[in-house]
Automatic annotation (TrEMBL):
Pfam family, one: Vps54_N
The UniProt record lists the keyword Transport: yes
Keyword Protein transport: yes
Classification via InterPro entries: VPS50, VPS54_N
Keyword terms: Coiled coil, Protein transport, Transport
Protein name: Vacuolar protein sorting-associated protein 54 N-terminal domain-containing protein
Organism for this UniProt entry: Parelaphostrongylus tenuis
One Gene Ontology term from the biological process aspect of the record: retrograde transport, endosome to Golgi
Record-annotated Vacuolar protein sorting-associated protein 54 N-terminal domain positions: 68-356
GO cellular component terms, A-Z: cytosol; EARP complex
GO molecular function, one term: SNARE binding
Lineage, uppermost ranks: Eukaryota, Metazoa, Ecdysozoa, Nematoda, Chromadorea
Length: 483
C-alpha cells in the first residue's frame, strides 16, 4: 500500500511538472481558444518555406467530454507511450499546410488542457477521499502489522505446541512400545514357564507329589489355551495332554505299590490327586483290583520260589495249582508259613487303608459341613469288597493245602500247618467276616489222610516187630487173677 501511494504521488508530480512547463511557454494565452476568438485573429508568418498560406476557418466549439472522447485510443494502450513520435508519424506522407499543422497543434493543446483540467478537477474532488483512503490504508497497514505480529506470535506458539506435541507423541510412542515390550516379555516368560512346566511335571511325578503336578498341569493348560494362537504353544498343548495321561499312569502305579508297602503321607498325596481329578470312584475300583492282583502275584511268586529251591521246572505257563503240586514236601511248611505271612500282610494294609479313609472322611465331615461327593466312596467300595479280596487270599492258601500230600510230613510239621491255617482263619473271621470253611474241610481231609497213612505205617511197624521178635512167658505173681 505504501508503494502504491508513492507511485501515485510521483505520477501526479510528473503530471504537474509537465503542465507547468507547457503553461510557462511565451504568451500561452495566444494559443488558447476562446469562444470569441477566430482563426482570422491569428498571425501566421508569411514567409515559411514550403508552406502555403490558407484562408482561416470558422471555429467549432466542442464540449470537454467530446474532446476527451476524441482522444486517440493509442494513448491508453501503453504506459510508456511516445506521444510526440506518434503524432509526427501521422504527418508523414501528407502535404503539410500551416493551417492544418496549427489546427492539429491547437487540437492537441486543447486535449491536453481538457485532460489537465479533468485531472485537476478529479484530484480536487478525490483529494478528501484520497486522504481518507490514505488514512484507511495507514490504519489497515497498522492492522496488518498487528495481524502479522499476531500471526508470527501464533506461529511461534504453534511451533512450540508442535514441538511439545511431537515430544508428547514420542513419549506416548515410547510408552506404547514399552507396554508392548512388557507384554511381549510377559508372554515370552509365560511361554518359557509353560515349556519348563513339562520338566517340573516330571519331577513332581517322580517325587510322588501328584497334587502339585495336577495343579501345574491345569494351570499350564489354562495358560496354553490363552496363547494357543502361537504354534509352539499349540504343540505344548499336545504334550500337556500326554502329561495328563502320564500322571494318571503314575497314580495307577502308585496305588499298586501301596498294596505292598503303605506310606500314609504318600497315600494322602495320591488320594488328593484323585480328588482333584474327580476320579475317586475310579481310584477305589483300581485299588481293589490292585489288591486282588497283588495277592495273586505274591502267592504265585512264593510258590515259584519254592519250586526253584526244590529244583522243580519253573514254567510260567503252569497254573497256580500245578505249581503247588510241584513243591517239595520238605518245603511245604515254609511255603505255607510264608504264604500266610504275605497274605496277612497285604490284607492288613487293606484294612489300614480302610481305617485311614474312615478317619479321613470323619475329619473332613467335621471340618467341612457342606456335602462332598468324594466322601464315603472309598469306604463303601472297600467295605463291599472285603469278602472278595479275602477270598483271593483264601483261595491261594486253599489251593496250596489241597494240592499237597501231608501224609509224608512229620507230626510236628502237620501241627504247624494246622496251627498256621487256624490262625489265618481267625484273622479272616475277625477282620473280613469270613469263616473260611474251605480251609477246615481241606485240613480235615489232609488230617484223615495223614492219620490213615500214619496208622498204616505204625501197624506195618508193629507187624514187622511181631514177626521178627521172640516172645516168652511173662512171669506174674501168684496173687494175680485174670478177670
Amino acid at each position: 500500500m505504501e508503494k502504491l501511494r508513492t507511485s501515485l504521488t510521483n505520477t501526479l508530480k510528473n503530471l504537474g511538472d509537465t503542465l507547468a512547463e507547457d503553461l510557462s511557454m511565451d504568451d500561452m494565452s495566444d494559443f488558447m481558444f476562446s469562444t470569441q476568438q477566430t482563426n482570422s485573429e491569428l498571425d501566421y508568418p508569411t514567409s515559411i518555406a514550403g508552406v502555403s498560406k490558407v484562408s482561416p476557418r470558422s471555429p467549432v466549439i466542442e464540449s470537454d467530454e467530446d474532446i476527451i472522447n476524441n482522444i486517440d485510443a493509442s494513448y491508453f494502450i501503453e504506459d510508456d507511450f511516445d506521444a510526440t513520435g506518434y503524432e509526427l508519424k501521422k504527418l508523414f506522407g501528407f502535404d503539410l499546410h500551416l493551417e492544418d499543422v496549427d489546427s492539429e497543434r491547437m487540437r492537441l493543446r486543447s486535449q491536453l488542457q481538457v485532460v489537465s483540467k479533468k485531472i485537476s478537477t478529479l484530484i480536487m474532488e478525490k483529494s478528501p477521499s484520497y486522504n481518507t483512503q490514505i488514512e484507511d490504508m495507514d490504519s489497515i497497514n497498522i492492522s496488518i502489522r498487528d495481524l502479522v505480529r499476531g500471526i508470527r506470535t501464533i506461529r511461534e506458539a504453534l511451533s512450540i505446541a508442535e514441538s511439545e506435541s511431537r515430544t508428547a507423541l514420542c513419549i506416548l510412542a515410547n510408552e506404547k512400545k514399552k507396554r508392548l515390550l512388557n507384554r511381549l516379555h510377559s508372554t515370552l516368560r509365560i511361554i518359557k514357564t509353560l515349556y519348563e512346566t513339562e520338566f517340573h511335571l516330571r519331577d513332581c511325578i517322580e517325587s510322588g507329589n501328584f497334587p502339585v503336578a495336577i495343579r501345574l498341569c491345569l494351570e499350564a493348560k489354562e495358560a496354553a489355551n490363552t496363547y494357543r494362537h502361537f504354534s509352539c504353544v499349540s504343540d505344548l498343548m499336545t504334550k500337556l495332554v500326554g502329561s495328563t495321561n502320564l500322571i494318571e499312569g503314575a497314580l495307577d502305579d502308585a496305588l499298586a505299590t501301596f498294596t505292598m508297602v503303605f506310606d500314609q503321607d504318600q497315600y494322602v498325596l495320591v488320594y488328593s490327586a484323585f480328588i482333584m481329578l474327580n476320579k475317586v470312584e475310579l481310584a477305589s475300583r483300581k485299588l481293589i483290583n490292585h489288591f486282588i492282583a497283588t495277592l495273586k502275584k505274591s502267592s504265585r511268586k512264593i510258590v515259584e520260589e519254592h519250586c526253584v529251591r526244590g529244583r522243580c521246572i519253573n514254567d510260567t505257563e503252569l497254573s497256580y495249582e500245578a505249581l503247588c503240586e510241584r513243591i517239595d514236601p520238605e518245603d511245604v511248611v515254609s511255603t505255607v508259613r510264608e504264604l500266610c505271612y504275605v497274605m496277612c500282610k497285604i490284607l492288613i494294609i487293606y484294612h489300614t487303608i480302610l481305617r485311614f479313609h474312615t478317619e479321613d472322611d470323619e475329619r473332613r465331615r467335621l471340618g467341612n459341613p457342606t456335602e462332598d461327593t468324594s466322601m464315603g466312596v472309598m469306604i463303601n467300595h472297600m467295605t463291599s469288597s472285603l469278602n472278595a479280596v479275602f477270598r483271593v487270599a483264601l483261595s491261594a492258601l486253599h489251593s496250596l493245602l489241597c494240592c499237597q500230600d501231608f501224609s509224608t510230613l512229620k507230626f510236628e510239621e502237620l501241627l504247624d500247618i494246622v496251627d498256621m491255617a487256624n490262625r489265618f482263619r481267625d484273622f479272616g473271621h475277625t477282620f473280613f467276616g469270613d469263616s473260611s470253611d474251605e480251609i477246615v474241610v481241606s485240613l480235615e481231609k489232609q488230617a484223615i489222610t495223614y492219620f490213615l497213612h500214619y496208622h498204616s505205617e505204625r501197624m506195618e511197624e508193629l507187624r514187622l516187630f511181631l514177626e521178627n521178635e521172640c516172645f516168652t512167658l511173662c512171669p506174674i505173681p501168684n496173687q494175680f487173677h485174670h478177670i
